[in-house]
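My current task is to audit a protein record that another person submitted. Alongside the sequence sits a line of tokens, each denoting a local backbone shape. Where you disagree with what is written, explain briefly why. This is what I was given:
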Amino acid sequence: MTQKQTAGNLFVRPKRHWGAKRIIIHIAVFTLVGTFILSAGIFGRVTLKGRADEYLVSTRVDTLHLDGMDAIKSAMQSVVDDAAVRRAVDQAATSRKRTLKTTIIRMIAQGEEDAAVLQAVADAMLTAAQDRIEDHGAYLAVEKALGEQLDGIKASISELSNERLPQITLTDVRKALSVTTQYYPFMFYHVALITAGSALLLAAAVLLYIWIRFDEENKRRVAEWLEPMDYLAPFMVGILLFTLYPVVRVVVMSFQERFRLDGSYTGWGIGNYEYVLKGIEGTSNYFVQGVRNTVLYVLYTVPASTALAIVIAYLLNQKLRLSALFQTAYFLPMVTSITAVGLVWRWIFNRDFGVLNALLMLFGMDKINWLQEAANSLMVMVIFGIWNTLPFTIILLLSGLQNIDEAYYTVARVDGAKALRIFRRITVPLLAPTIGLVLTINSISAFKVFAEVTVLFNGSPGPAYNMYTVVYYIYEMMHQRLELGRAAAAAIVLFVFIFLFTVAQRYIQRKWNYV
């Protein structure tokens, strides 16, 4: 009699061990995906090359049509002073302008040389002028002058056309593409697609070589190495596309002087950094002003908010009556839009109707013009920044407090230690790692202050443009002046500044000694 299978084993799924077969799966996937991506890239390049050819033809047509007709008209008018004759030549050129463009396009499509095209243009313009010039002698003079100068016109226009054609490259055509253009992604990213597709096909070829030449043991080892790579692949692709590539692009853009939104720039160099750090001589350097305001904001906001948050978190951790209500009140800004909160604070700081001035008047103090006087701008920012930073800081510190073993406090109380001494000798030292984390995170966040400025001062950097911050400067360069290269340079300087500040901060924190 067979033993009845237990219910617990009915839903156990057997483990799948792909083993060396994982290599075959990767070969198939890499080949299919790589072929698709490579084909898309090749298709984009071919399509872009076709558009480049269209631009070349269009440039040649415009040169022969516009410049050629102007040169021929000038030659026809060069020997006559009669206004009527000159006007007749102008009318002749205008009347044949559209027809001649069609003729030029047709002749170029047939493979005609520039000289033959210009000859046809000259003949058509002479015929049109003959119908309008009443004086036969004047017409003969025009015809003779054109005949004498036509060879020179052909040579000069042909040379001009040859000069213009090589200047149009695939890069120029790619930059000129509009996002609404059909097949825009394939054309614009054709280099990246071809590179990615080729890399996948190369990986498939390497795995195929491993499958053919390696023994079973080595195949199994390669398959075991591939397994964690499969789990990491989606994350790594996201990191490459949305983190690494933008960072590299910003660094490159910062060295492209006067880089604009259309992709144009004047050259390579450190001109963007010179403009950011030095500004224009004789004018205010708003970046330096932004650095000064940002550093002061960090130095005032971060220590004050951290110290206040430690006290509040310590009180909230005491399990007092209504502590849940107080926790909700302190955490409320975390789930509130900073824009909505900023508008409320603008009313709080209002000179005539603000709650803050009403409280000051209760103690016999005068009203303060918080938002309209430049001297008060930094104070307004710091007050709002401290209030806005508290919730997140309290959450982290409260979490750190709840991880402290209660036995430390019990032993300290048994020894007769007072509350203040317990706080200073036990709570703060054991909370030091969390305090260090809070200081680092809040410092980085404070260096990127932007929304507070725009909300409190109604979109401007202070009442007298005195509250520029580094991020506001970057925003202005990008969205108002459209100087993306200078904005990228300012962003790199900000990154270096935050990095050095964070390294110094971490070094100081490692020197803390609570013994």
Summary: The chain has a mean pLDDT of 80. The CA atoms of residues 11 and 314 lie 48 Å apart. The domain at 275-510 is CATH 1.10.3720.10 (MetI-like fold). The chain has two domains: 21-175, 275-510.
